[in-house]
Fold these 2 entries.
Entry 1:
Amino acid sequence: MARYRCCLLNEQDEVVRVEELDSYDDPEAHRNVMDLMAKTGHFSGYELWRDGRKVDERKPVNPRT
């Protein structure tokens, strides 16, 4: 099992919380992040990391004005 770090982001694309996740592989880690996002509901995005490698990300949408 591998350790992943999930950085949860606010609307300004700032890290506001960090969660450590234990997952067998990248797809499982992605599913775990989706579960975490669904449960909390108040984060705008995330970055998922493993051993210094960015596995996945979802950034807040910044509308152009």
Note: The longest strand covers residues 15-23.
Entry 2:
Amino acid sequence: MKQQHHPIDLRTYQKGVNSDSNKEILGSDDKGTYVDALNMRNLSMDGNNYASKKIKGEEVLYENIDNRCIGGTGLPLSGNYICMMSQEINDHIVEIWASETPLSNPPLFRADGKIVAYSFDIPIDINNPLQYDKNESCIGGEFYVTNNNTPPMVFSLKDLMVNSGMLPGSTCTQKYFEDFNIDEFVIQTTGTLYKPAFIKQISGIASSFFDGVFGSLGLAVGSYSYSYRYVTTDGDRTPFSPITELIPVVRNASAQFNPYFPNSRTFGSDANTTSVSPYGNHIRIRYDNDANFSFIEIRRDAWYAADAIDVPPVSEIIGSVFYFC
């Protein structure tokens, strides 16, 4: 074969790169050139191999209005909604939005600009960014959502659209609106859970041999129960364990003048969360870390406000135990 030689093409840039001076024909120099342009592509598109072609830039596809099939007002949505997810699933654009004012503006899902889910019970907020994925191989497509705060959730795009009346022959329902039930969509991590055991009430400074001591003051007069769940480093959480029996906390307990166990006299008082008792509850938890969880979260349910019988307790995560054998 005969060796071929080509002339060296040298270019210098003393005044910067060429600007987008020709709006219709970009890169027309037959010797090649670098073009600084806005709103253009130079990749293969519509059969034009590596040809610079103008594009239209961004455009608004859907109006930001309340277009729910039931209860939709047709008015603009609050301006403080933030897009938490946007992805294309089987040629449909699916979005999740959460508001900076969640008490008045619930999270919502949209499919092709149509609100398909709208409920205060959707556990998504702007303080916990979403991780998400999709599956387009199943009928209608589905997507997965988690935020390192709640159990992972899975939603069927087709079911969302059917229950919003978007597909032929479908009827709008309240499934993803007033009747939304998060338990139907969560994927729970499993683990072996046992019922915690109440050991005793203690007063004063807790002993250092406890695996976890939560709080430095006593509990308010009332009744308490406890449960726990496992958590992974990725934020996956199991359901809560069975709860303990209700544990009463009184203002004062005394065994004075009487040897009977555990106390011969107890003194209650009116509900007052600002005036605590000297007592705390010692709870023992049995666990099997067979799934390599990272830590345990402890939940306390408290009845201390003298509410009616049907009023739910004040439930909160009071702490975590990070040490696993």
Note: Residues 81-184 form one domain.
